[in-house]
Design goal:
heterodimer, A: alpha+beta, Outer Surface Protein A, domain 3, 3-stranded antiparallel sheet, two-stranded antiparallel ribbon, 3 helices, 5 strands, 24% strand, B: alpha+beta, Phosphoenolpyruvate Carboxykinase, domain 3, 5-stranded mixed sheet, 9 helices, 30% helix
Chain lengths: 94, 289
């Protein structure tokens, strides 16, 4: 079963760049998240579209120096599940 | 419930009513806070209540339960001889749990030339003693427990309550400050030996005068003197841990804290004596833009 994911609306997120991490304030929950690569890039390329891990991987390879392949997809899928648990992305049915 | 005695205190921007079933802790507070102004109009932000744990404990082995607008259910009662400590703990608790007008950092602060030095760290880091010592060496004391960061202006607002000296810090301060500025020594409290010190008169008279933060230090007592750089992520995380109301403030707190972390030069400072710390601080201070 291949899932699609959608990022939280951009208006709900406030980003702040620190040296090695990215801060993300999630307005609806009031929670501050501290994200390491590649989580911020994943949310950035998702924009407002429901995407599979493979689609996100291909978007990332266009923007960043990422090697395409199943390995990248697995990593992205793992991060997407973590971000879902935090309420920053959601799984979209269908 | 029997008769309650009470006094009103203004410390920086916060006004307190301290009500007590016993007169003695209030007499001690009154003496130590005699130079502090009364809250304008008699209105207060918080009430702290010192009450008997059980009605009969008002007289027999009296035991002080700290109550108030905000309280912790597991706060252990203190013996009446530690009533002054109970009052101070009660006031700190109200600030820590209830204050919303500023981002509250568990930190000490001192000022020179309108600029504030903030010192934060775990209990035992020496931040309180350092602020008390610097206050006797040409700096204006702004607070030994809480630094209040203004959400709009980014200024530090003083909260110059009594300085709470613990254990070795008591003797160190007794050697440089006149006896009449000390409260009673309380032995073997849950926090060790405690003695309160009245801040210098100047610190009390200027309690409404804010200062621009220009330097943040994470002092650590007991290690060879050295200054170390810290990453912004580490600084941010440690400041969220040092703040009791960051989460409650929501988005304004996020903006205030990220701005603070971006703008304020920060160092970790190890030291073994006040002299060493002062030397390190002076060297940093002279290099500030």
């Amino acid at each position: 079963m291949i899932h699609k994911y959608r990022a939280a609306p951009n208006a709900d997120l406030i980003w702040h760049d620190l040296d090695s991490m990215m801060l993300l304030f999630h307005r609806p929950s009031g929670i501050t998240h501290m994200l390491a690569d590649p989580a911020p890039a994943i949310i950035e390329v998702m924009e407002d579209a429901p995407l599979t891990a493979a689609e996100i991987a291909s978007r990332l390879t266009v923007l960043f120096d990422v090697e395409a392949g199943t390995d990248a997809e697995d990593i992205i899928l793992a991060r997407l599940e973590e971000l879902s648990a935090l309420g920053l992305v959601s799984r979209v049915s269908g | 419930m029997g008769e309650m005695h009470q006094i009103l205190l203004k410390i920086g921007p916060a006004a307190f009513r301290i009500a007590s079933a016993w007169r003695r802790p209030l007499e001690q507070l009154e003496a130590l806070y005699q130079d502090y102004p009364a809250p304008p109009g008699g209105s207060v932000d918080f009430t702290v209540r010192l009450e008997p744990e059980k009605p009969w404990r008002r007289y027999i082995r009296p035991s002080v339960h700290i109550g108030g607008d905000f309280w912790l259910p597991d706060a252990a009662p203190l013996p009446l001889r530690h009533g002054l400590l109970a009052a101070e703990m009660g006031m700190n608790l109200q600030m820590a749990l209830g204050w919303r007008r500023h981002l509250l950092l568990h930190a000490s602060s001192v000022e020179k030339d309108g600029k504030a030095l903030i010192m934060t760290g775990l209990s035992g880091s020496g931040k309180s003693t350092l602020s008390a010592m610097l206050a006797e060496r040409g700096w204006r004391f702004m607070g030994d427990e809480f630094a209040l960061l203004c959400l709009e202006s980014g200024q530090i607002v003083p909260f110059p309550r009594l300085i709470s000296l613990k254990n070795d810090a008591i003797g160190a301060m007794q050697s440089v400050v006149a006896e009449n500025r000390f409260g009673p020594e309380m032995k073997a409290t849950p926090k060790g030996d405690i003695r309160h010190l009245v801040p210098p008169k100047d610190a009390i008279a200027r309690m409404d005068e804010t200062a621009r933060p220009v330097l943040l230090l994470f002092p650590r007592f007991g290690h060879s003197p050295i200054l170390r750089d810290m990453g912004l992520s580490e600084i941010f995380v440690r400041l969220t841990q040092a703040s009791t109301n960051y989460v409650a403030l929501g988005e304004p707190g996020f903006h205030a804290l990220t701005r603070f972390v971006d703008q304020i030069p920060t160092k970790a400072m190890d030291y073994q004596s006040v002299e060493q710390a002062e030397e390190l601080i002076d060297s940093l201070w002279s290099q500030l833009p």
